[in-house]
Amino acid sequence: MKHHRASFMPLALGLAWVCLSLPAQEQQQPAPPPQAPQPAPTPAPGPEPGGRTPTIPTPAPTPLPSPREPRREPDFRQQPFPEIQRPIFLSGRVVLEDGTAPPDPVVIERVCNGQPRPEAYTDSKGRFSFQLGQNTTLIADASVNTNADPLDNLGSSSRNPFGQPRSFSERDLIGCELRASLPGYRSDVVPLAGRRLMDNPDVGVIVLRRLGQVEGTTISATTLAAPKDARKAYEKGLEAARRNKLDEARKQFEKAVQLYPQYAAAWFELGLVHQRQNNKEAAREAYGKSLAADAKFMKPYLQLALLSAQERNWQEVADTTERLLRLDPFDYPQAYFFNSVANFNLRRLDAAERSAREGVKLDQQNHIPKLRHLLGIILANKQDYNAAADLLRAYLPHAANAEEAELVRKQLAELDKLTGAASPATQPQP
To answer: Which residue range(s) make up the domain with 262?
Structure first.
């Protein structure tokens, strides 16, 4: 069996992360058929020699012209007016349970059919305002899902033929809701279905409620004590980062931590900028200083785990994700994924299986399909071949590309040899 188990060791980690129609033209009427040429008048014949009366040929009847077809008016009962599409603006406010605004920006998400999409950040007073589908400049860290805009799955593209974000109709909001996303907190939900284009854009107040068993926080306590000048530089840095002006953002965050060295949130944002500029050592140093200022501030942990995974330092990945999961075991299926990968590569199969199962349990919407693939590989190494094959078949439609799909088919073929079963996924593909 050992030679079979070895074939499941390789694991692709994938850790990188107008037209206004012209008025309907009148139908072109068919031209009447050409008329037969009229015969020239025939002179009256005289008597033929011999006194015989000549025979006069009967002229062919002249065809009458076809009448013009009447103009056809459009039947609006069969062709209703198209649904009006306009920009949809939404605004509101986010508060904590005590009525105060979150001290750090909070992501506002649109969730359609279970698929979340970041739309905006709150400002320093917890307010937000945005146009649906317009915001493409949000900074995505390792905890942000990078799936395509779920509105693409609602039957219409989110962009017009010229590549610009399109307007949405009321039908696009069916199955959608609005929420604030902050790990360690549960958000009120604002349903968007049934919302009309001319409604007041203000959706009201969204309340964030603290989870009782979570020790960590994405809002550092050090933020509340930040001096005014440091806070001003921090907010300027956030704005510059959103506009992708990374050098300006880095300068503002550096100014913020110089004015207030215990500013954990500013150190974290500085680390993100360094990471986006591919300065990994500077990013790691900034994340470390963020945790030194506030060890319960959860945001840096996942970024540090990502950096360590890219360096294949599996023990460090395992240690970092375990610290994060002790602080918050409810909101980070990505942390369970990294922890499972680390333990798998360290040959701790029981620990790897536990983390993968916990991650799958949290990831009910299958935002991280790689978790199922990973759990299948772990079970194959533990000789639970039937369960492993089921997981690999479920993952196959979510493979990242044709090359990975072929790898999964080969793994399924190997499992079929071990179990003696024939899998439809291993049949020749057309």
So the answer is: 213-297
CA-to-CA dists, residue 247 to 181, 238, 241, 285, angstroms: 28, 12, 9, 18
pTM score: 0.61
Choosing from 297, 325, 355, the residue where a domain stops is 297
Task: Give the integer Cα–Cα distance in Å for 59 and 386.
Answer: 92
Strand, coil or helix: what is 101? coil
Q: What is the spatial distance between Cα 360 and Cα 80, in angstroms, rounded to a whole number?
A: 46
Tokens for 56? 């006069």
**Tokens of residue 377, six digits:** 């590989």
pLDDT tens digits, 32-90: 444 444 444 444 445 444 555 444 454 555 454 555 555 555 554 444 444 455 678 89
CA distance 16 to 347: 23
User: How does pLDDT run across 374-415, given as a tens digit for each residue?
Assistant: 999 999 999 999 999 999 999 999 998 999 999 999 999 999
* Rounded Cα gap, residues 68 and 32, in angstroms: 8
- The closest alpha carbon to 206, from 179, 170, 182, 235, belongs to 179
* Beta strand pairing call for 89-96 and 189-191: unpaired
Amino acid identity for residue 256 in this structure: A
Q: Which of 366, 373, 311 is nearest to 342 (CA)?
A: 311
Residues 165 and 240 in one domain: no
Number of folded domains that form the chain: 2
3-class SS of residue 74:
coil
* Cα angle 203-207-211, degrees, rounded to a multiple of 5: 150
